[in-house]
Design a protein that fits this description.
231 residues; mainly beta; 11-stranded mixed sheet
């Protein structure tokens, strides 16, 4: 990987060599951009438009915006028109596509993908190997366990995509699959390995495939306390 930092970029943090930063990217104070990171990668439409003419990626990129006190670890790729808030941590090999927005103090685990326009609130904790497609919306304080797959197409391959919405403080366990268009209510819990095919009410805890309500969040928290105290 050959290092390149655009003359149009505004870099207030630390960029480790080699890295590529294109367009009018902004990197905030005290942010660390690790080696082999690519920021501001142009959208597919621009590549298709210029591929036969020869394309200057820096010239066509709009750049991305990364806040202060962030960490972007090695081999991650952040497309143009991505907005990342302050205090965000990004693992190794993360892909964040154009138009995505990530709120303050959120974290995205290694090898996860935000594959399209995805919106994350603040204080979101996404573990490794999570797949979030175009139109996914996630509220504040949400936890998503490793290996979770969110979908956005009810009849693949169709021309109509429908996003999943996960409300504030919901908990999604490891290896969950969320069907296109479902809504996970505020403070709901989806147990590990569940397949969610319908909306989950606020405060509900669902298990199984297809997922069914097993208890409420209050009962779940009581069981968690017992487990933590007594094993």
């Amino acid at each position: 990987m050959e290092e390149f930092i655009s003359k149009k970029a505004v870099i207030r943090g630390k960029v480790l060599k080699p890295a590529v930063i294109l367009g009018r990217t902004i990197v905030g104070d005290y942010t660390i951009i690790d080696r082999f990171v690519y920021i501001g990668y142009p959208v597919r439409g621009k590549l298709m438009e210029f591929r036969d003419k020869g394309v200057d990626l820096d010239e066509v990129s709009d750049g991305a915006k990364i806040g202060s006190r962030c960490i972007v670890r090695s081999h991650s790729i952040i497309y143009e028109n991505v907005e990342i808030g302050d205090g965000v941590e990004i693992g190794h090999g993360v892909l964040i596509r154009e138009g995505s927005k990530i709120g303050d103090n959120s974290s995205i685990g290694s090898f996860s993908q935000l594959d399209g326009k995805v919106e994350l609130g603040s204080n979101v904790n996404i573990q490794s190997n999570v797949y979030l497609p175009h139109l996914t919306k996630i509220g504040d304080g949400v936890f998503i366990g490793p290996g979770t797959i969110v979908t956005n197409d009810l009849y693949p391959v169709s021309r109509r995509l429908v996003g999943v919405r996960i409300e504030d403080e919901a908990v999604i366990g490891a290896g969950v699959i969320l069907r296109a268009g479902v809504e996970i209510g505020r403070r709901a819990v989806v147990a590990a390995g569940a397949i969610v095919t319908r909306n989950v009410p606020a405060e509900a805890v669902v298990v199984g495939a297809p997922a069914r309500i097993a208890m409420n969040r209050r009962e779940y928290e009581a069981k968690k306390r017992l487990y933590e105290e007594h094993g």
